[in-house]
Design brief:
With 144 residues, the protein is an alpha+beta fold. The protein folds into two domains: 70 residues, no CATH class; 58 residues, no CATH class. Helices cover 17% and strands 28% of the residues. The chain has three helices and 14 strands. Strand 3 and strand 4 form a beta hairpin. 9% of the residues are buried.
């Protein structure tokens, strides 16, 4: 049992000097960064209070105390404009010189319908969007 900062006890153990809880067993009053962000809060410069473990202890997330969380900063208009320009640049296709409706691959900077028509990926050929993916080697055909 772990003694919490408010005097309660919760089932858990100690790992590297931090209380650790299994997935679904974290006590009330603790939240991950994503949960804080969903509530428009931030850790406020405070260190993590505990660990949340899953996948047989091979994956973890930091847990922060809700009573120490602070309201998240709102971006300034200049920051909002910079983010808008950055996201527009991520959607720009260098091949067709147009904005795509999704972020293009940073390696090629082109949409897949232009770059990947004849590309082989794990034994499959990518086709035009909507046509699907077909196997270039029919069943029973020998290939090297």
């Amino acid at each position: 049992m772990i003694q919490l900062s408010d005097g309660r006890q919760a089932p858990g153990r100690w790992i590297c000097g931090l209380p650790a809880f299994r997935y679904g067993w974290a006590p009330d009053g603790l939240a991950t960064r994503r949960q804080l962000r969903a509530e428009h809060l931030s850790p406020g410069g405070h260190e993590p209070y505990a660990l949340l473990l899953w996948r047989r202890d091979r994956a973890f997330a930091w847990l922060y105390r809700l009573d120490l969380a602070q309201p998240a900063r709102t971006p300034t208009p200049a920051q909002q404009a910079a983010l808008t320009r950055a996201m527009a640049a991520r959607r720009w296709c260098a091949g067709c010189q147009q904005h795509a409706d999704h972020c293009v691959a940073p390696v090629h900077r082109t949409v897949w319908r232009l770059h990947g028509q004849d590309r082989r990926l794990r034994g499959m050929t990518l086709r035009q969007p909507g046509v699907g993916i077909t196997n270039p080697h029919p069943k029973g055909a020998a290939h090297v």
